[in-house]
# Entry
Amino acid sequence: MAPATSAEAGKAAPVSAVLASAEAEGRPALLEHEVYAVLAAAGIAVPGHRLVASPGQVDASLCASLGAEEAVVKIVSPDLPHKSDVGGVVACRNEPSAVRGAVDQVLRSARQAAPTARIAGALVVERVAFRPGTGREVLAAIRHDPAFGPVVVIGMGGLDTEALLAGLRPERARVMLAAGGLTVAQALEGLRGTLVQAAATGRLRSSRGAGVPEARLAELAVALARLAVSWAGFAPPEGLGLAELEVNPLVVAGDGRLVALDGLGRLHRPKPLPPPRPVAELRRLLTPQSAVVIGVSAEGMNPGRIILRNLADGGGVPRERVWAIHPKAAEIDGCRASASLAELPMVPDLAVVSVAADRGADAVVREIVEHRRARTVTLIAGGFGETENGREAEARIRAALADSHRDPDGGVLLNGGNCLGIISEPGRYNTFFIPPHKLPVTKAPGVGLASISQSGAYLVTQISNLAGVVEPRYAISFGNQMDVTVSDYLAYLEDDFQARVFAVYLEGFQRGDGARFLEAVRRITASGRPVLFYKAGRTREGSAAAASHTASAVGDYEVCEELARAAGAVVADSLDQFEDDILVFTLLDGSVVRGRRVALLSNAGFEATAAADTLHGMELAQLQPETQARMAELLPPGIVDVHNPADATPVTPTHRYAALAQVMAEDMGVDAVVVAGVPATPFLDTLPRGEGHHEDVAGPQGLARRLAAMFRATTKPVVFSVDAGALYDPMVAAMRRDGLPTFRRVDRATRALARFLGVSR
# Structure
């Protein structure tokens, strides 16, 4: 290889030539001077350097080009990633004889330690003066993520990178940014509050006097983002791009430059993304006017028969336009049956295929797609990815769908396979294969939820757990995303403004769909509607074998979580938290978020203390004198003073307890309220009607109804907690039926409220 300086590399060796040269030599990774060339082309500072094949190529002009008193000589070999282990790194004075000696030393050491290694030469590099140490060296990288495409990572660098990233909270140790359209302002926002920002800008005591303006760190992120968009996306020039490019460390030089000292890069040829799907046609899937079910038994009950009944009974599709396919029957459950799809009187909007994978499901789907027997399909069956035959069948289905999407009409859309079906309130239909007596979908105070779940079983548990409290507008089980993806649903449903809350349970994105997901999340949240997100499958696959710091320290889940959070999604860490989010965001839709000042009411000291200990970023409101005076009149005299949290003690009766909550909500200095309490006290009306007492919690004088009146009288967010056993389940049920977001522990209530207020996400 010919000698090249950093300036020459940036001008004469564009990135495409560097990558093509490496690929032509059969190398999956770049050599260090090639990484320098790519970085220089992006406008990122690199040390002065030159590649030499032997000591004889070192002369005075080379040393002068480095512009430093000292040099570092490194072995260059695609087979020796850890140069120091083979004696392949030597520092010396930057004068010809010393540099020649260092070149000779690293070449000899490497050849002795690894006789079969391919040696490209020695890289003579300017030794950049900087103050080394933890917090003053930066990791800067771009990577191609299979779901999100080009991503930028900036974090703590140096020899201890993995330990730092593993030992610190991820959001403190580094930042991950979606590269597409990244601006300096967005980079600044992402970096804000991180340890790497504090260290690089000289805000730590150990780094004072050795920092750079924070805008320069943001500009680095933007430069990396431009590089990533061009070379780490799904369609790099000539199809050859970067799977990853990492700099570790990047340092603040003594002259104030941010300089990349060491780096690695890996090549890849990403597969092209499938053709786009006609998302507007999802109207036929979600509000069909005609439908056919394939796989219906005429003799007994099977999933297809249940689907047919649910579909016909929903009323959204007239029964005369609900058909079944059956070789012999003329009618099933009042719906006309035909022997084949070709015999249907019209092309239906929706075909539900309830045929097993090993019983020809792919042939049915391909007939529908290739002959346009229906406009959309829900494929119920699983079994496509678990066996060789199943994988081949899935490949045939995917190919047929992709071909159809290239046609002028946009082709056929398919939901699934391996899905439970769809419940659509606007379409007034249900294609779940669960009978209504096992999973009733009842009217409820919480409306406007669009629940989009990869797991049908999870969707069942969500509907069951929130029955009578939250009625989904859409409950969409989308399975393994052979065609229609989670982002397609978000993109379509964002224009339905009666969908007030979006809840997404996801196990994995299709290639490239993560980037579209982030775009949809940004648009929906910008419209004032929340996107609640739970990502299952959190293992760091392949991290043990990762060749780079970035890959080993930043797993697939971390990428997904951080990018989704940065886009505005409310990301849940557990299924309990996810369900709490659904409850609170749905029932508090319409409440006005004014700030983070919260008032807390309980009748138990432990609960008041627990609530104050779990504010999750909220602040205890300072109650106004008028509020304190009104509360003093309601609290039992001589037992407690007025505080926030307010401990009403167990002797405060029902009407006064509800009045206390009302007074706290009316305080102009209070933004939100938590009303908790232990209901076992005889002074609160908390039991349903029964023998041995005169209580009626759901009656007009009961605590549930009084708190409901208080809840409806304010636009401030209010959450409730009832900490007690099964005896008080009727009280919780009554409160939830009235639309009160009610929890069984006060710390869950405070966490849910803080997440609704946006102070803890």
